[in-house]
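Slide 14.
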Amino acid sequence: MKVNVADRLAALRTRMQETGIDLVALGPGAHVHWVAGFHPHPDERPCLLLIGPQREAFLMPSLNAEGARVDTDIAFYPWSDDTGPTAALAAALDAVGASDAGVVSLDETMRADFALLLLGALPKARHGFAGETVGALRMKKSEAEYRELKMNARLDDVAMQTAYAAIRPGISERDIAATVRAQFAADGARPMFTIIGSGPNGAFPHHSVSDRVLQRGDAVVIDIGGSRGDFPSDMTRMAVVGEAPEGYAEVHAVVEAAVRAALAAARPGVRAKTVDAAARTVITDAGYGAYFVHRTGHGLGLEIHEPPYITSTSETVLEAGMVFSIEPGIYLPGRFGIRLEDIVFLREDGPEILSDLPRDVRVCG
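Slide 15: predicted structure.
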């Protein structure tokens, strides 16, 4: 998706003024992609996008400069392996008006040696993290970003139905995952992750895949995502092989009620912890509180996991335009797990679910 760099920089500088930040420093990754529309090559050579009150510049390894120039017209301050980055960094800081920056907003995902190099050049500066600057802006998606997220959700729906079609006694988790990845690829999307947790493996929330062969009576957790363009999808649905295991229907109903409670609580102006509490209360009241072992949700955007995080302690106030998952789960060791996950785009009147696929359990095989 084409990024309007001038608009992104203007929004970021407004945020810098509001938060008293003199310099934003970003390493190769999602924050730079949001601002500049591309990912600089990530390696051990220091590369930083420096954004001052009025000007911006890249500290750029000479080795990567020619390749990066096709993606941006932001000024480069190149350095080579034989000279090192120190002088180029000092020149770049001077160019963006940040040689004496008092408060720096650091990319929390950049390499530690990049951060130490920068802070060494600004010994008097205090620092915070870019979650308060770029991250705060990334949490609210535009309508263009919504359209790409919606498109990827539709691709995820198709891939999920491919998984349903593959499930039968005798097939392995690994083979189902391969079928899902092939479907994403056929639709021009990059497979981002596949969790296929059958039977007792479903009780491990972040089980990936294994060679376990599905058996009649297994419950199967299917958590998959792919990306065509900049934004990924993420969705979890449940299937059973032939018939559900004992006690499954009751637990599925509790998780579905928790999803509905969280959706009802998610409104602009509500704190994220209130949404988590809505889901958690349903599960706890049903007697399964000890088996809901993770947060209710996470933000989704350029990264699969990003703010806002829907946790029991998050004070983040939800706003229209935020995108996040609702994904409560119950995990019964040695038996099965159930997680139901939808990504929502928060509108002024509440959450819009991006998937069109029902959360009902699918009987397969």
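Speaker note: The domain at 5-138 is CATH 3.40.350.10 (Creatine Amidinohydrolase; Chain A, domain 1).
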